[in-house]
Amino acid sequence: MTMNTQKSKLLIYGASGYTGKIIAARAKELTLDFEIAGRDAVKTQELAKQLNVPFHVFTVDDENAWKKVLENKQVLINAAGPFKFTAQQAMNACLNAGVHYLDISAELDTYRLAESLDGKAKEAGIQLMSGAGLFVSYDALAVHLAKLVEQPQQLKIGFQHYGGFSKGSVLSSKNITDLGVLIRKDDQIIQNDNPEPKVFSFGKKQLECLPTPLGGIILTYKSTRIPNIEEYFSLKLPASDIPDLNPENLPDGPTQEERASGRNALSAEVTGIDGNVVKAWIDAPSGYDLTPLSVVAVASRILNDDFKVGYQSPGSAYGEDIIKDIPDTRLIDLIN
Ligand SMILES: NC(=O)c1ccc[n+]([C@@H]2O[C@H](COP(=O)([O-])OP(=O)(O)OC[C@H]3O[C@@H](n4cnc5c(N)ncnc54)[C@H](OP(=O)(O)O)[C@@H]3O)[C@@H](O)[C@H]2O)c1
Q: What residue numbers bound the domain in which 222 lies?
């Protein structure tokens, strides 16, 4: 169902979800020319009315609808997760329509899918970027440190998350925890047979983090080619803790006040071939503010014709420079 024929340049699919709404609000705040879409007619129409933007209602499998709606678009933000069920269809639609693709997935299989579509993305002349949420600042930090040492050999990175988890994140995190503790070792992705916690410095605060594959083993490897990557998280992912994943029992996500009451942080160390270690950290808004700010920053770059064709990570497309586009976010070098 298409309700408006006005042309816009950005489409947000899954816009009426918890994170999609914050993304759409950010796009509105920046007065971007955008439309929204989703599978639920009532929720999508209601949001479109609030934002005063055109809207489209179609399921993710509806190839004809994608074709029609993407005809006049430059970039798609896919905010409909779990991405296990939406990324392939949305990526194919973008490849067919010649529209740049972004999503906010935290699922490693979505990154692998994007990686496998590199050739097709180049043929279509589009930038295909999965993981344009958290990984925008994460990658900027890794790229920054990798440039400070000779032949970077190892990245260890800790993520301090604030803001709890949305319903969508809980449902999606099963697609991460099921993979086990993956690391990159000597360029290969393997299981970590001996996962041990590690303490990271987030400014003055020291925090023990747990080994957790966050996706840098794919995305940051793309950005930096660092052959050894280990990732850590300040919390246990919820899917491993919650036996009953009935969506009805899960809250939509933190309130605006809850989101504003704390900060996210990333801390990383990179070791060069001579053993030299450099460290830095990032202080940023809490998770469900940071991701919308990040993905809209990338979409804005594309709308200004700043993109690289093919499968890209935030770091491979924009380097560390993109961090300047994320409000209220600072990269701070740590002195040994
Ligand atoms: N790494 C990051 O930076 C980051 C940060 C935040 C969120 N995320 C990810 O973003 C995703 C969304 O999170 P959320 O908090 O917004 O969840 P949510 O509130 O449950 O919203 C999910 C949205 O996707 C739609 N959707 C789900 N499955 C679909 C399908 N098969 N076909 C079409 N639409 C579908 C939902 O539509 P209905 O309303 O019709 O169900 C809803 O609009 C999750 O995967 C989460 O992990 C990642």
A: 135-287+320-334
Percent of the chain with pLDDT over 70: 94
**CA-CA distance, 296 to 43, in Å (whole number)?**
21
Choose which residue among 39, 108, 171, 250 to substitute to test ligand 1 binding: the one with the highest number of ligand atoms within 8 A of its C-beta: 39
- Whose Cα sits closest to atom 34 in ligand 1? 80
Task: Kindly tell me if the per-residue pLDDT of 2 is higher than 80.
Answer: no
Joined together, the tokens standing for residue 45 give 């129409």
Contact 128 CB / ligand 1 (< 6 Å): no
Please tell me whether residues 203 and 246 are part of one structural domain: yes
Assess whether 14 and 46 both reside in one domain. Answer: yes
137 lines ligand 1 (CB under 6 A): no
Same domain for 109 and 68, yes or no, is yes
Q: Are 71 and 141 members of one domain?
A: no
Q: What is the average pLDDT across 280-296?
A: 96
Percentage of the chain lying above the pLDDT 90 cut: 84
How far apart (Å, rounded) are the C-alpha atoms in residues 147 and 320? 10
Ligand 1 neighbourhood includes 175 CB (under 6 angstroms): no
> Cα(225) to centroid of ligand 1, in Å?
30
Is residue 1 situated within a structural domain?
no
Q: Let me know whether 217 and 309 are in one domain.
A: no
Please give the distance, rounded to the nearest whole angstrom, from the Cα atom of residue 79 to the centre of ligand 1: 6
pLDDT in tens, 264-280: 999 999 999 999 999 99
For residue 2, is it within any domain?
no
| Domain tally, the chain | 2
111, 218 Cβ separation under 8 angstroms: yes
Angstrom CA distances, 208 to 157, 192, 196, 197, 282, stand at 12, 18, 10, 6, 17
Q: Same domain, yes or no, for 156 and 229?
A: yes
For atom 17 of ligand 1, which residue has the closest CA? 168
